[in-house]
Amino acid sequence: MKVHVRRNDKVIVVSGKDKGKIGEVISVQPKVGKVLVKDVNIVTKHQKPSRQNMQGGMVQMEAPIYSSKVMLYCDKCKKATRISKKILEDGSKVRVCKKCGETL
């Protein structure tokens, strides 16, 4: 399954309980079509005491969400956008904002 975002991209959530939140992609899981976004889809996990976490207890952490629920966020337009690809003079491909033409 192909995912349209990469790690360290700035994305905005377009549906679900966290709709409208902006965050950075921490990791991408293309096999299941999910992404992990910083400060989005926070869940509470109960952990037993271990060597690393002596106390144990409830830990809040991000959970993956489907990549179809996020869109790339353009800092120049301040909106969610689709991307197009552009080939530069030196032959390299770059991703470009469809709305304003800014390189992402």
Write out key terms for the chains shown.
6-stranded antiparallel β-sheet; single chain; about 0% helix; about 45% strand; mainly beta; two-stranded antiparallel ribbon; about 100 residues
The number of helical elements comes to 0
Shape: elongated
Supply Rg: 17 Å
* Portion in helices: under 10%
| Residues in β-strands, percent | over 45%
The run of helices and strands is EEEEEEEEEE
**Sheet with most strands:** 6 strands, antiparallel
Which sequence of strands runs across the widest sheet?
A: 6-3-2-1-7-8
Assembly level: single chain
Low-confidence stretches: none
Count of individual beta strands: 10
- Which structural class fits the helix and strand makeup? mainly beta
Separation, N- and C-terminal Cα atoms: 22 Å
Mean pLDDT over the residues: 93
Describe the structure in your own words.
This protein has 104 residues and is mainly β. Helix content is 0%, strand content 46%. It is built from no helices and ten strands. The protein has strands at 10-13, 22-29, 34-37, 42-47, 57-62, 65-66, 70-74, 79-81, 83-87, 93-97. The strands form three sheets. It has a six-stranded antiparallel sheet, with no helix packed on it. The radius of gyration is 17 Å and the shape is elongated.
Write the layout of secondary structure elements.
Layout: E1 10-13, E2 22-29, E3 34-37, E4 42-47, E5 57-62, E6 65-66, E7 70-74, E8 79-81, E9 83-87, E10 93-97
Antiparallel strand pairs: 1-2, 1-7, 2-3, 3-6, 4-5, 7-8, 9-10
